[in-house]
Specification:
Layout (H helix, E strand, L loop, with lengths): L6 H7 L1 E3 L9 E4 L10 E5 L4 E6 L3 E6 L3 H4 L2 E6 L5
Antiparallel strand pairs: 1-6, 2-3, 2-6, 3-4, 4-5
Length: about 80
């Protein structure tokens, strides 16, 4: 599956889902930049609360979406459309 290169375009590409619908492999989108409405960071869900993502200072890490930092910047969850 070809995904767009940047996180904002990936957010447009994915079908939005609710937190209760999240499965491992779904994406989670955040606004971590100056514009609090623009997606600027993406992670891959590995459980209903944890996701893996790249940190500019720590490399690839696992984080929890319930952490205050991520909770306050969460934009949406998304499912990559799969053509059968």
């Amino acid at each position: 599956i070809k995904l767009p290169r940047n996180s904002a375009k990936q957010g447009e590409f994915c079908k939005q889902i609710s937190h209760s619908e999240v499965s491992p492999g779904d994406l989670v989108f955040f606004a971590t930049g100056k514009n609090k409405n623009r997606i600027s960071h993406v992670g891959i869900m590995i459980s209903s609360t944890q996701f893996i993502h790249a940190s500019s200072s720590k490399g690839v890490i696992i984080s929890d979406i319930s952490a205050d930092y991520y909770k306050s910047r969460l934009i949406k969850f998304g499912k990559v459309p799969i053509n059968d």
